[in-house]
Amino acid sequence: MTHAGANSEVGRLRTVMLHRPGPELARLTPRNNDSLLFDGIPWVGRAQDEHDAFAQALRDHDVEVLYLVELLTETLENAGARRQIIESTTRTLHLGDGLRDYLTAAMSDLAPADLATVVTAGLRNDEIVHRSIVTSLLRADDFLVDPLPNLLFTRDSSVWLPGRVAVTSLAMPARMRETQLTNLVYEHHPRFAGVDRLHGPHLEHLEGGDVLLLAPGVMAVGVGERTTPAGFETFARQVLGDGLAHTLLAVPIAQERATMHLDTIVTMVDVDTVVIYPNVADHLRAHPVTWVGDDLKASPEQSFFAAAAEAMGIDTLHQIDTGLDPVTAEREQWDDGNNTLAIGPRLAVAYERNEQTNARLAHHGIEVVAIRGSELGSGRGGPRCMSCPIERDAP
Known about the structure:
The chain is built from twelve helices and 20 strands. It is α/β, with parallel strands linked by helices. The protein has two domains: 13-71 and 149-392, L-arginine/glycine Amidinotransferase, Chain A, CATH 3.75.10.10; 72-145, Orthogonal Bundle (Pentein), CATH 1.10.3930.10. The strands form six sheets. Strands 8, 9, 10, 13, 14 and 15 form a six-stranded mixed sheet that branches.
């Protein structure tokens, strides 16, 4: 099949990949939630209900919903894919040779669905019968295979571009294995046969939440806590060198938990309009980068909005500054008020809890599809974070 991909944030959404929260969320405890990048311990059943409502809201707008674990399970019917994921999952120094050999053999005997559960939900020391020096010295509840609760945020491990997909390179240790699973699906699942891939988990850090497809030929990439300057450069060289865009904007953002990705402070809701966290709007800067001759050329830093409008060929990139007082703005930004998912122009999914931000969107003519997210938001991500658009119409 052909792979149209996406060339904007707001073209009509046709196909999206989600991950329904599963047993990996039940692995979170007060002892490990910080290292696994969650701010709290989510109520798993409620998180699943909220996610199901999110998926249904997309289907109600004629969006095809694919689930990552279903794709992974189907992929693991392939013997080569099974060997590949077992080898990469057990390639860790904390197991030792004996335990690694045992796990390799045990995982090889699992059915595809059970193997998909192990590589996503993890495996504890007390869940195996094998005993060795390593298992004896580990705590009973130590993980031999770490769970991946952040799979919920499918935006980060891959980014669809025109006709191809960029598999990213996640910066935080708790998330690095996610791209192994995503890459496996794109490499071996029949749905994606022949898809061209860019970047990859072996390259410099680049995360999908930092990549905004502002317009056909124009992308903005946040550079901060998760995407490094070197990651931006490598991505820009591939995208611009292959003619997938004519301008990339490198956008420095604060290296803080509240602004871990560019899409935590700004997302698009129309072809020429963004919703943005007002506390940073006046200070957001960008370095336009283009391809000249056979190499990258960086232009002087300027206002993000001026650089974006010029690259997009429009007079103004309009801002929906939420217009809130500073405290409310900070609260709603923390609750992912600026992290909207556009289903189409002027139609966006947002968390219902951000009432004042949503009211401002509605005031500016943006139809808001409000969803619950009290449990989903405990991992610091909104509707955009939880979705990987695979196909969009041209805007």
